[in-house]
Amino acid sequence: WERQVHALVGVLASQGKMSVDCLRRGVESLDPYLYRTMSYYEKWAASMADHCVRTGLVPAEALRSAMGYVEDVELSSSGDAARARFAVGDSVRILPERERLAYRRPHIRVPGYIHESVGRVTKHHGAFPDPELLAYNESGVKQPLYTIRFLQGSLFWGYAGSPSDATDVEVYQPWLEPVPPEALEEEEERVRVRVLRARAHAERYVPGPGHDTRHDVERKACEAEPASGEVFRYQPLAEALIRVLSSDDSPYAVMTSADLRAAVARVDGLGQRGEGTQLVARAWTDDAFRELLLRDADAAARQLGFEPSNYTGSTGATILSVVQNTPQVHNLVVCTLCSCYPTSILGLSPAWYKSRQYRARAVRQPRELLQEWGVDLPDEVSVVVHDSTADHRVMVLPQRPANTDGWSEEQLRGLVSRDSMIGVERTLVT
């Protein structure tokens, strides 16, 4: 049923009946108790059911026993893309929630930990449909999307890694305001001093008796999440929605049962051709291809015959970016808002990637998290965390192992792991 739920989202999106942002808004709208106790795909099913009732795809009576109240949806007209106000290298500040009033709660596409922080624009991705309107099945002026780089020490007080460690976050233009370059320079100097002090304190600190370490607290929280394979309380809701939307005798079906089976087969086939390993191996053996991959990953993927976008249709295509590990930089991919992931290239994301523990600690404690994966980085290697979004998926290009000169692409592919393309593995074993 979980794979069917995943496939059903893709079908509704491809038919223009539901966007990914609609799905996310529905998940974010869940009662706090339900949000804490539902599994990952139970939340998807509840969100889809609520959306289908509100938009008239399914009558309320068909799901009333499993769903609560529903509300009307308001539609608006479309418009042109907003002019890009920022360029690469510009210093910007993220607006506080109270200052950005042109949205309706609870759907917010800005991670809470970056509000009021100062960072630098590192990339302009173009304009995309406004997710704050898509969440309500509306359309309007497209909004420019940027990658903003923040120093870890600026985001998290007490950060004790390297002063150069950073997190990249995709932010839409309405949440940005310009700041003078000297303001960012002053912040970077304050961060440097603060991180060095935090490091000195961390080296002296030992948890007192009777107190769990932060890692223990987060581990226990993660263990409290629904376990894989258990009986799911809200599974009947998911199965009821699947029957209503795909049964051959249902008057509200948007697909046939055969269509659903084909959609599930497509989900099962995601990433099964080894698309990610092929991209990496070709980049290791072809300098021109590597330059294309880092500059325009979508074009590079299509050159090898791969579709880089997770979905198309009215929702719009996702874009793929590839970031390169070097002797000086290690990249780590996460999605703190949901679990955005390049499924068309790497397949379905692993369960740990979707867990609250990984999503929280990847941005707050990237070095400690990587150490637990066996990646112990010296201070001279900066960690750059990439907090991806539904529109922009990120993959890591790992470093080529030594002593592999003369190896064929097929041999090199065997060295590349999924984890290395997420960033939780650095040294590949020959």
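The above is record 1. Record 2 follows with the same two-line structure.
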Amino acid sequence: INAEYGGAPLRSYDPGFINTSVCSSKISSIDGENGVLRYRGYDIEDLAKNSSFLEVAFLLLYGELPNKEELDEWNSKIMRHTFVHENLTQLMKTFRYDAHPMGMVIASLGALSTFYPEANASLQGMDIYKDKSLVNKQIFRIIGKLPTIAACAYRHRIGRPYNLPVNHLSYAGNFLYMLDRMSEANYQPDPRLAKAMDVMFILHAEHGLNNSTAAMRHVSSAGTDPVTAVSAAAASLYGTRHGGANEAALKMLQRIGSVENVPAFIERVKRKEELLMGFGHRVYHSYDPRARIIKQVAHEVFEICGHNALIDVATALEKAALEDEYFIKRNLYPNLDFYSGLVYSSIGFPADMFPVLFSIPRSIGWLAHWLESLDDPESRIFRPRQNYVGEAEREFVPIHMRPATARPSLLSYRSTGTSKRNTGAAQPRSSFLSGKL
């Protein structure tokens, strides 16, 4: 708040930035009251029905839909940058056999940044981002290589050799190819599943200044290179409050188990004994428009992969909640996460891949915000203030003068078996061979 009161500047106290705007943006708009999401002015329903993921990516990054020549060049450059350096795949192979795929993706993105020192402002200075060709090169690299890194993480998790990318398939089709090809010479993923994944990617591509996008802007505001900043944004997405919500919704449906159990579950939610996952949203006070589209995608996936009984539970739960005054008054409507986990699990993805699948398309939104910030004359390094509520000034007390009274340990931690054995071995004990000489 740019005002003075009693000689001191006024500041707003806003935990979680619930009502704080830190930038102006032209990338996406959300009308939470009416359930409208637009990318650069285009309704999400229109784009999901008529466009492709890479076409939408071009729109989000550069502000306009591409013409035929631009789209062909864009697709070609992205797909040419799907290969990763052999040193990076060697690094990924050093992870434990049971490493979480999202942890592998985050670490690999951080490592990827070291392969391009010529595009790192920390090494070359901020003026390098005035070179639009270099900025575009980093965008091509990140969008192209992220699915490859994600596929390698998936294959690592199931103990199979990594697949090289191909450039004769669509963006989503190439991703499915790298996930599933065994030894077939001419393996082709199901084009219907590739289309379903493409639509899912469009729906997840951008959603304003959410937690991970804010992390992208925050980290990159320091002049950090975009690959490292994307790694930080992915780390934000790893959190259960952000990218883990669809897994929580899926586990809730599995716990309910059958349609017959829905009424009892609804009553437990109303008594605050259970949480209704996948409903409600910080910015939507009506039906999330993406949820309607995903619900249709779910039925298309079931026609290919077989019926998933949990869709019946989800439909019954949605119907019960939308007809109950308790949830209506609280504006609790299904959001993107309610059906997305169900779709991904039906395609065959384990739950630990859900945040990885989220990060691939959301990287477009992250990069669009980074690109926008480079040209923003109001762009500043993020430096929010804190409201200090700690001790007043105190004088240092020498250790021999401090009270020796017992207090709960500040250094408690969970011991491993080794440390427990070592602790026991370190305790003094009487010798079995003790005696008088």
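The chain has 19 helices and five strands.
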